[in-house]
Amino acid sequence: MSKKIFSHPKPAEGQLVGPRYWKSLEERAETPEFKEWLEREFPDGASEIEGVDRRNFLKLMSASFGLAGLGMAGCRKPRRHILPYSKQPEYTPVGIPAYYSSSFEMAGESTPLIVETYGSRPVKIEGNPSFLPYGGATGSHAQASILEMYDPERLTTSTVNGGSATRAGVIDSFKATSQAMSSVGGSGYALITRQNASPTKRRLVSKLKEQCPNLAVLEYEAADRTTSERALSKYVGKPVKPIYKLSKAKRVLSFANDFVSGEPGSLSLTRGFADGRRVDTPEEAKKMNRLYVAEPDFTLTGGMADHRLRIGQSQIPALAALIAAKVFELAHFGSELVGVLRSKGSALKVNPEWIDICAQDLFDNRGSSIVLAGACLPEEVHVLTAAMNAVLQAEGKLVSYVESQAPLSTHGLDGIVSGLNDGSIKHLIVLEGNPVYDTPAGTGFAEAVKSAETITALSYYSSETTELATTCIAETHYLEAWGDGRANDGTVVPVQPMIEQLFDTFTALELLAALAGETDLNGYNQVQSTIDGISSGDKAKAFKLFLAEGILKGSEYPKAKLSISADKLIPTARAILDAPVLTGESLEAVFTPSAQMFDGRFANNGWLHECPDSMTKLTWDNAISISPRLAKELEERDGIQILPGSGLMQSWGKFRTNVDNAKFKRGKQEAPVAELTVDGRTIKAPVYVLPGLSNYSVILPLGYGRRVVGPVGQGTGFDFYSVQPSQASVVTEVQIKMTEDVYILANTQEHWSMEGRAILREATTEYFKKTPDFATQMGIESHSPPVYGAAKNESIEFKATKIPRGGSLYKTPEFTYPQQWGMTIDLNVCTGCNACVIACQSENNIPIVGKDQVLRGREMHWVRLDRYFAGDVDTDPHIHHSASADHGSSMDGWHDGVPEDVQVSFMGISCQHCELAPCEQVCPVNATVHDDQGLNVMAYNRCVGTRYCANNCPYKVRRFNFFDWNKRMVGEFYKGPLGKQNLDQPNGELIKMRANPNVTVRMRGVMEKCTYCVQRIQEAKIRQKSRARNSADIKVRDGAIRVACQSVCPVGGVEFGDIADPTTRVSQAKRSKRDYSLLGYLNARPRTTYLAKLRNPNPDMPGAYAKPYSLKDYKNRYGHADHGGDHAGHGKHDDPGHDHKHDHDHHPAH
Amino acid sequence: MANIFPRWVNIVPLKVIIGVLLTVTSIIAGITYYFTPKYSRVGYAPTQPVAFDHSLHVNQLGLDCLYCHQDVDKAAHSNVPSTNTCMNCHSIVKTDSPKLAPIRNSYASGEPVEWVQIHKTPGYVYFNHAVHVNRGISCVHCHGRVDEMEVVSHAESHSMAFCLECHREPERFIRPVDEVTNLAWTAGSEAEQLEQGKELVEKWNVNPPLSCSGCHR
Known about the structure:
- The complex is a heterodimer of chains A (about 1150) and B (about 220).
- Chain A has about 1150 residues and is α/β, with parallel strands linked by helices.
- Chain A has 38 helices and 41 strands.
- Chain B is extended.
């Protein structure tokens, strides 16, 4: 009998023509290189040694074996010592982690934290669940900040006036400066800090300002996110800021407000937003919120959108005016105002239906609809949105206003620059930030600063600013220091040291105290006296509670009232600028802080560098993002191929190029380099084509291209500050010109690709109501479900422990442990924020490999975030027509094969812990096996590195240690034993301290992958068993184990627990109608399952879709979207999914 | 034709085969024995900076294990006592004994006493003391009769096979939780231990891990 070989059903030739679901332009274009990618397990080059053939390799190896023989002397085990304390502090058992509260400050906002420490060594950062708005969530930057503490490149010594200084020397010099300053009232001195909410620092700066009335103070933030605050403060005359609560919002309209990842309070915003999208039954579907987004860039918020309007950032004020006019008109709020707003928007070419229907939807749901404006927009838009929210009756329920703190700046950046230039500022003290780098070139700060007599800089790393500084002070990491901060709503949070200062370093707080003439520079005392000033009742007790809980209860900003009148708004409306016309010759440039480097402060953080950008999937670099439309126009104008693959152009357009000239070779993206001219300044940088961008906006992510930085950040990306004319984040009349040059980008998007199967499943709420089980009706498993045989209808619990195989002759592994672990990931709330990727890296000692190795496809992340674009290029003109703001030339351009409007979906993938795991069958040494709790475990010691398991893994989640990533320095891998070791560098010992002691640090030649945080599972079990003593109560409670990706997730998208117990949260999630297994037809029975995604489009909207693009893709490819199972069950062929005409019924414009 | 090879050559192949076999066997046997923890670890009894006599402190003075190793039921590591634990008594007893000079020096200077490590689990093994002593596995099973040792030595092999012996058949070793630090305790005969052990395993739902993830993470 011949063996039956299973192969995936091939779609008919004709079905391939329809729209499809693709991960990249290369895949869409089907370049030969991409096809080769798919066929190979690891990217080309990933499994080969460069420049070494087998013979040379053996020669080299025999030499090193010979050397090894010389060192055989120490066979007897070394004598080791145990060093107990001399006087042991109480409650400090070795190996039991201690948890302390602290907080991480970024751009004037603190995230409350709980830090896990082992023997006073901070190892892992978690969010502080006592702070309810964030509910224990953190972002990727907070997660990655721990790496910097153990960075051997941090500054460890200080210099005063060019000579090295001791601690006392630094303090003396600051005291001298303090005296000199106050004697002249601060004239000639300027102090630059970042935007600070810290009560102690504000107290000290205020005191300093009192002592030195002429001191110039600037709180500079390159990525200023306080626009809303500034706008409203001007409007009402006192510092007021909005606090949004999205959990009860039914309709949300965002004007370039990236509340998922960038805006103030984004953690609580994204959490609240996700609450409104948690839909488990078809009945709940109508309660799901709806998100409208108008933006130039493709942000994560745009990825969540139900309706997304691509529009230039410079055009958004006009759009806001038009939408506000419609809303005000519906609410009969100021007819003159409506007229002014209409006239302001008249120049904007955008589909009026979009505006009217969006405004109508907001108005119909008044009381539960809200409008948000991005910090990048002008102040008028923020006042206008506040007025809209008032008219929409959102105040009190969805937005509340609080009286925040006025900024302490006395000067703007331009004031400091002119002061430096005219000599009125001679002494510059930079206590926070790196202004020489992160000020726009157009402001001239970097040149002006050279005329200062003295520059004092406090810095954690050497930077562009410390390079010019006459006095350079090494900064203390926040995990070693005392301090305080405020969360977005004003709650005061502590910064506590986890470890004694590793080096003789200083905090900004200590130096401010010295400048302000305080005698006590001790951070603890300073913070305590501040808290004593705020807290009420028993001061000592309040302070203890503050440190223990990590928040000061009742310290939120006081509530404020915002009264909006139509008449008062008219001047604001008049100030709105007309929408410019954008074309391929006159573009707009949008300067935006990058998702990884932010404003550049994380430039030496390897975790963030290697974490692929959610949208572009670029690592270690930034690039000019342009739209496919612009790319096509540039191709035709400059004759340089930008869009990948000839296939795309040949089948869809007229343009022909050399077939061999593909842009994605061997996993390296050969990006063409463009010359970008902004206001007379020119920069050469690679171009990245990102579908979904506004046609004539170019996106310039900031924070890369640091000139003076540690070795990790050396040579990464391009510095767009160098062309930024002013602090405004958008510039029009920008020109771009292609060059012949090519730059190699390390793009992970093609790695680990899974070809066009029903991988990510989504539907609309309408479709979900009619077809609740759509998730299991897609894909091949609708024809060929997992083989359960007679046990088909048994419970999840039964299936998880007994593993029925329907009479198969193969032996069935039975999982005997009373608890069986499983996970669900809710795709409906996943925003793609990357926090899980970094949290996993931090928890599981995952190394970075560097750009060179990422180019070879050897990145090591256990969680990867797959991004799928879904788009409809040819068949649906309405979408392109209606959702693009750039009418002009693109009106007749939508049909020539350029993907403009796309939907994006994210899917986090790590080891799925298959019950019948394909990897286990092929391991020749049993290194990967199942344990009795249903985990697929890796025994590193057994692994001999055949990589068969990775080859046989259908999910491509296994990672191989091609080199000793942990031992050798990045860039030294190929030198073998001669390469420099991490520990050999100065302060290299720091690297050792970072590792989580509960997780093995893997060596070269072994395979690794997600373990479901087995260390946390075992800890919880051990804890429970130790507690049980002589009782039988050994079952770990639901919720006692929180795996790293679960505990960091801001939207609660991950559930983990015991699936043998039907009452646990994960079991409940798995019973959801939306639950499906990835590639379930393989009968691998993954323990991780996914909850399908839903979108909630407005049926009245032009371009509304009955099904999301992905479902449509699937349908067009396989002919019918829902099939299998019991065909007789429900009238499939009457479903809206089958009625193609139905799609078009939704387009009023049709 | 004359004989080229002399007669004795006939048995050379046999000799060679036997010789090779003997050599290989002895190499394998040698490695099997001399490279195992049984050889390399058992019996290791280094000289400590202070000749602490367990038999004196436990048997004569009646100190419980937990008096000094107080973290053993809380943490993965069982702690070696800090100097202040020694000084609890030795600030009153034998205050000027020259043998205790390192202790007094450590207490005065704050520098730790450099005890020599005897038991060492490899880095890839995540052994947890607390869960064993809380669930009726006595110190004696892994560490031997420390209460009778004047000089502590490595008593058992601590190889993986050694661990699995108990994890496969916990009933052969398990005892009431109260008797964990009583190293002299026995259930009586082997049959009695088995009978009692089976009952305890049943009653406490003892479920020692036998898969890799139990100890390797």
